[in-house]
Design goal:
Shape: elongated
Radius of gyration: 18 Å
Largest sheet: none
Distance between the termini: 73 Å
Length: 77
């Protein structure tokens, strides 16, 4: 039985859509192969490093980036 991921990887290589590696990167250093968009064939870019829209591919799916806490200023008077 052929796994779906193996078929997708073979198709991507055969069509020549990407030069990027298909293996996930080392821990602590994200690569395009770790990106949700790349793994789901939604990325049209062919870059050597992750772009500004990089989102990690997690079991929960696409997770929005964490937003910084809103700090309120104290009134002047």
């Amino acid at each position: 039985m052929v796994k779906a991921e193996d078929t997708i990887e073979a198709w991507v290589r055969a069509v020549g859509l990407t030069r990027r590696g298909l293996k996930p990167g080392r821990k602590g250093r994200p690569t395009c192969a770790d990106c949700f968009f790349h793994r789901n064939q939604l990325c049209a870019l062919d870059l050597e490093s992750p772009c500004s829209t990089f989102r990690p591919d997690t079991p929960q799916g696409l997770v929005p980036p964490r937003q910084p806490a809103l700090l309120l200023r104290q009134g002047a008077g």
